[in-house]
């Protein structure tokens, strides 16, 4: 079990996807996303959701991002955050605000 203080340490933010690029040199189908996190700037996020979403479905959409993770190398790329998604079998769905919010808005 996580304590409330451990949960509060996770910085969840609303991000707006500005760019979507398909990565063809990764082990599984991935996208490289440029995500606007408001005051935190624009981050590059590598996401394994290419099998579930088209570029058109993602571009200019809003997602929830874990913004305070250490950058991680994914193949030849650096990912500067993690988007949140739920999975049930082969059904993967992004966690999204139901209305547009300013990029960088805190979630919690």
Descriptive notes:
- The protein has 108 residues and is mainly beta.
- It has a single domain (4-98), classed as OB fold (Dihydrolipoamide Acetyltransferase, E2P), CATH 2.40.50.
- Helices cover 8% and strands 44% of the residues.
- It has 2 helices and 10 strands; from the N terminus they run αβββαβββββββ.
- The strands form 3 sheets. Strands 1, 2, 3, 4, 7 and 10 form a 6-stranded antiparallel beta sheet that branches. It has a two-stranded antiparallel sheet with strand order 5-6.
- The chain starts with a helix and ends with a strand.
- 21% of the residues are buried.
- The model has no long low-confidence stretch (mean pLDDT 95).
């Amino acid at each position: 079990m996580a304590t409330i203080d451990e949960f509060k340490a996770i910085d969840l933010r609303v991000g707006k996807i500005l760019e979507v690029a398909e990565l063809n040199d990764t082990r599984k189908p991935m996208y490289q996303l440029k995500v606007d996190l408001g005051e935190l700037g624009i981050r590059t996020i590598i996401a394994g959701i290419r099998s579930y979403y088209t570029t058109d479905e993602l571009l200019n959409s809003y997602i929830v991002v874990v913004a305070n993770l250490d950058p991680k190398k994914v193949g030849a790329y650096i990912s500067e955050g993690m988007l949140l998604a739920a999975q049930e079998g082969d059904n993967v769905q992004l966690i999204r605000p139901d209305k547009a919010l300013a990029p960088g808005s805190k979630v919690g």
